[in-house]
Design a protein that fits this description.
Order of helices and strands: HEHEE
Structural class: alpha+beta
CATH architecture: 2-Layer Sandwich
Distance between the termini: 29 Å
Strand order of the largest sheet: 2-1-3
Number of domains: 1
Number of strands: 3
Number of helices: 2
CATH topology: hypothetical protein PF0899 fold
Radius of gyration: 12 Å
Length: 80
């Protein structure tokens, strides 16, 4: 799971922000992922699903847009 080191800080950051806002759950996450991160969509989504178990992001839908680059950006996330 090469993606773990990329996804863990994203989960942590979104969780911390959502908790500060009083959210109960995160329902949707939109990311922009650089092709140079050497990941594919299926693997990224599977790792995200595994790492979000028992967190406020557990049932969040993940939307990924790939672009030429080497970074990962959180575009937006929705909360309840």
């Amino acid at each position: 799971m090469h993606e773990t080191h990329i996804i863990q800080p994203i989960i942590k950051g979104i969780s911390e922000h959502a908790q500060k806002e009083g959210a109960k759950a995160v329902t949707n996450v939109k990311l922009k992922v650089g092709n140079l991160t050497c990941t594919n969509e299926d693997s990224f989504k599977e790792t995200f699903k595994t790492l979000t178990k028992a967190t406020m992001l557990e049932d969040a839908e993940l939307e990924i847009t790939f672009f030429p680059g080497s970074i990962v950006q959180v575009l937006s996330f929705d909360v309840e």
